[in-house]
Predict the 3D structure of the following.
Amino acid sequence: MLDLIRVVLVSTSHPGNVGGVARAMKNMGLRDLVLVSPACDIDETAEARASGADDVLKNVKIVASMEEAVADCAVVIGASARNRHIPWPLMTPRQSAAKAIEATSHQNPVALVFGRESTGLTNEELTRCNAHLHIPSNPEYSSLNLVAAVQVVAYEMRLAALELSSNGLNVDGQGDFDVSTAENSHQRWGVPWDQSLASQEELEGFFEHLEETLVNIDFMDPKNPKHLMPRLRRVFLRSALDKTEVNIFRGILKMVNKAHP
Ligand code: SAH
């Protein structure tokens, strides 16, 4: 369960925050940390702040894009203190934890994405997420320090996992959680689902195919795309498509393109 929860930090600029996040994660039983183009080195300050969580720091993965960081994930949750022009499904840390822990039953990682200390996540980055996690802080002073934000969210992940562990599951164990054991708790649809959720990579392939098709049939003007793609992404991202459903949609797009050569 918790071993499938990944923390993704986008362009973090303070090494102390990277170390602090490693410690916050390890305290709560998380260990999968990915940095997207960090704006700092993992130096002695990072190591000092990690204080005993140097194993998490040592195993950190560094990638060039958010896309790469979440490619294999079934669910992506973006943490942001700010509201957006096109609102994204908004969740508290508790609601996010229920969704995240439930999604780990599909054996795919779940990503929790945190933004830059200075400017947070961009709109484009948030449209890559299934949901917008907001810690309901003081509206007049809403932005938490990055480490504090990760701590709050990681704690909720652990609580949600412990709730399930009353069914005899080991929250810190390796992949011992399957759909059938989740039957009575966090099943999103009330039944064990018959298909695995699509990965973000599969969804991105579908979104590209959809965009190409919309341009091809003259529904979307690439010079004036308005907010069509973000709005369509929001439809599909909130419906939790499984692998078969993505294949069906791609089959339909293929036929549409065939009819509009
Ligand atoms: N000034 C930035 C905030 C940066 S805080 C902004 O305007 O967006 C660094 C990161 O911590 C944020 O990108 C977000 O991932 C997380 N964070 C801080 N406060 C948060 C809150 N109230 N809710 C959710 N995430 C928060």
In short: Residues 65 and 170 are 33 Å apart (CA to CA).
